[in-house]
């Protein structure tokens, strides 16, 4: 089983972190610092609790005044910047510091800086050049919606790619693990000018964030994203990738307008034949295997988005659908194509498996074909 994510805060990390802190706090009592962090409750804390706890302990070793404490943090970043020279190719750029650093510094600003907007915004702008700061952006957007979104628009034109990425990532309405942004879920209009500035960004990490932001918006305001697709489509290869990736939820939902925008049309001449489940009983830890033929009766080649719907058994006895993509490509006229697929039922932390009836169905261009049963067993 994979190592729990919370264990990224380990002795090796604290050894590096305390050495960096000593650059600006020469008299740092390393032993006391680590001892306060790894207290009697340390083992019981989950990832977010550990991050918040470390930030709380850090406060005890920084100056009591918030402005002075932030000055020390920024001084530390300046001291260690030499470790992270810019890469020669923008697509190879990575944040200099680890995820662990970002979580702690973000949390420190969130816990103690919400009432000092000016100092905190300057800190966020600098920290995010080393470690992503999208989580701390959310509470500031909630408390200062107009000021913070205006700042995000300014950041969308920043010289550093990490700050530009934050301009998009920091205002994602449904950013996982982050504080909710109900106002932007309801009305994403303030986000659109930011995405307009970033859609042709030279850094792929920034463009990926734009796509993910679009996908978030599509879940609550699909018409906004569809309008952007119509306006942006064909602008460049990079922008076309952004809108396609940003529409992935709408495509999985089989939205007919979106299907049409990406050249995925009628399935009138498409058929699924000889569907067979090769493993009618799937043991937990093993895989469902199935096979079928796609028949294209059209006299022209046909572009097909091929997916399958997996209906998972829930604790209450109902089924919950998850759509999984297989491929998207042209199929020759008057052709028959065999497709084989495996779907793992390994135990993972993101989905609890329940024994019993499950179902699977082929989906082509948003149209779902017949469902077939199989059993998940011990």
- Report mean pLDDT, rounded to a whole number: 94
Q: Count all strands and give the number.
A: 8
Total of DSSP H or I helical runs spanning 4+ residues: 16
Portion in beta strands: 15-25%
Please report the distance between the alpha carbons of the first and last residues: 18 Å
Structure overview:
With 378 residues, the protein is of the alpha+beta class. It has 16 helices and eight strands. The strands form two sheets. It has a five-stranded mixed β-sheet, with no helix packed on it. Strands 1-3-6 form a three-stranded antiparallel β-sheet, with no helix packed on it. Strand 4 (302-313) and strand 5 (319-331) form a beta hairpin. Helix 7 crosses helix 8. The protein is globular. The two termini are 18 Å apart. The mean pLDDT is 94.
Summarize the structure.
By secondary structure, the chain is of the alpha+beta class.
């Amino acid at each position: 089983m994979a190592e729990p994510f919370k264990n990224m805060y380990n002795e090796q990390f604290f050894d590096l972190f305390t050495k960096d802190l000593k650059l600006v706090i020469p008299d740092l009592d390393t032993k006391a610092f680590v001892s306060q962090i790894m207290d009697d409750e340390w083992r019981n804390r989950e990832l977010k609790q550990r991050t918040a706890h470390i930030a709380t302990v850090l406060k005890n070793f920084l100056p009591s005044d918030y402005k002075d404490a932030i000055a020390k943090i920024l001084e530390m970043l300046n001291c260690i910047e030499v470790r992270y020279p810019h890469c020669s190719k923008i697509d190879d750029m990575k944040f200099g510091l680890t995820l662990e650093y970002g979580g702690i510094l973000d949390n420190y600003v969130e816990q103690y800086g919400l009432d000092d907007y000016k100092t905190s915004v300057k800190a966020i702008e600098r920290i995010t050049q080393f470690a992503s700061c999208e989580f701390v952006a959310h509470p500031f957007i909630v408390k200062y919606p107009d000021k913070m979104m205006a700042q995000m628009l300014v950041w969308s034109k920043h010289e550093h790619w990490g700050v530009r990425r934050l301009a998009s990532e920091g205002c994602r309405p449904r950013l996982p693990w982050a504080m909710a942004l109900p106002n932007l879920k309801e009305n994403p209009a303030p986000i659109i000018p930011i995405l307009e500035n970033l859609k042709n960004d030279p850094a792929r990490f920034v463009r990926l964030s734009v796509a993910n932001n679009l996908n978030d918006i599509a879940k609550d305001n699909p018409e906004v994203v569809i309008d952007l697709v119509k306006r942006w489509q064909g602008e460049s290869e990079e922008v076309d990738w952004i809108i396609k990736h940003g529409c992935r939820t709408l495509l999985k939902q089989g939205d007919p307008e979106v299907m049409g925008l990406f050249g995925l049309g009628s399935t009138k001449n498409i058929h699924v034949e000889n569907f067979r489940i090769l493993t009618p009983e799937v043991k937990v830890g093993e895989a469902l295997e199935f096979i079928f033929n796609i028949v294209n009766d059209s006299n022209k080649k046909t572009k097909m988005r091929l997916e399958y719907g997996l209906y998972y058994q829930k604790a209450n006895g109902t089924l919950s659908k998850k759509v999984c993509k297989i491929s998207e490509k042209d199929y020759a006229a008057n052709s028959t194509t065999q497709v084989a697929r495996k779907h793992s039922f390994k135990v993972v932390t993101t989905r609890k498996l329940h024994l019993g009836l499950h179902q699977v169905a082929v989906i082509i261009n948003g149209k779902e074909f017949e469902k077939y049963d199989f059993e998940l067993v011990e």
